[in-house]
Amino acid sequence: MVMTDLFSSLDGAYSLLIWFPSVLALFLYFSQVYGSALPSALCSLGASVWKNGTLNRYNPFTLLLNVLFMLLILTNLMGLTPMMYTLSSDLFTMSGLALVVWVLVLMSGWIYSPTQSAAHLLPQGAPLGLAPFLVLIETISISIRPLTLTVRLMANISAGHIVLGLLANSLTAIMGSIMMLPMLGLSIGYMLFEFFVALIQAYIFTLLVSLYQAEHP
């Protein structure tokens, strides 16, 4: 019963009641306010990732960020679709993705610039007596990055789905009563909020990967 309550937002029996008006409202809003500027906005969002990560279009890593950014957007949005399993909330999927990206970033630095990568473990001007301790701290900090990427994405996406499930359960409980319309409006509003959260979380994940890559020569 607990598992059903937590992930009941995946049940199409009542999530369609929230999902369809939310998608319709989102489509009408963007078509009226932004029109054809929405694809350009997504491109600008991706471009800001490359800029903050000091990447350029000639960097091979840019292609990986492109694919990663679009993959996360599609995965997060598919998780909001009724009867669809949320890969963004799956521990093994997200940890595997974060681990693969982290290994690629780390290996590129150590293969092409091993000396600079090793020097990055010790801050410039640090006392020699603290060098082993600082190297250990930096190594641990770098090693847990896949975990922090995974937990950040999973926690935000899962929390939103749990709230959607609770709202959907409340909506079915008061079906036909006078409180149904206010609760439906609240559910639709939160669903729209989750659409933006899905985009933002994909942006943050990709931006952090870009910043991690920028730290390595």
Give a nutshell description of this structure.
It is a multi-pass membrane protein. This protein is an all-alpha fold and 217 residues long.
Structure description:
It contains 9 helices and no strands. Residues 1-18 have low confidence and may be disordered. Helix 2 packs across helix 9 (180-215). The protein is mainly alpha-helical and 217 residues long. The longest helix is centred in the last third of the chain and has 36 residues, at 180-215. 77% of the residues lie in helices and 0% in strands. It is elongated and about 70 Å long. The chain has helices at 2-6, 12-33, 37-52, 60-78, 91-112, 114-119, 131-143, 145-173, 180-215. It has one domain.
Helix and strand topology:
Layout: H1 2-6, H2 12-33, H3 37-52, H4 60-78, H5 91-112, H6 114-119, H7 131-143, H8 145-173, H9 180-215
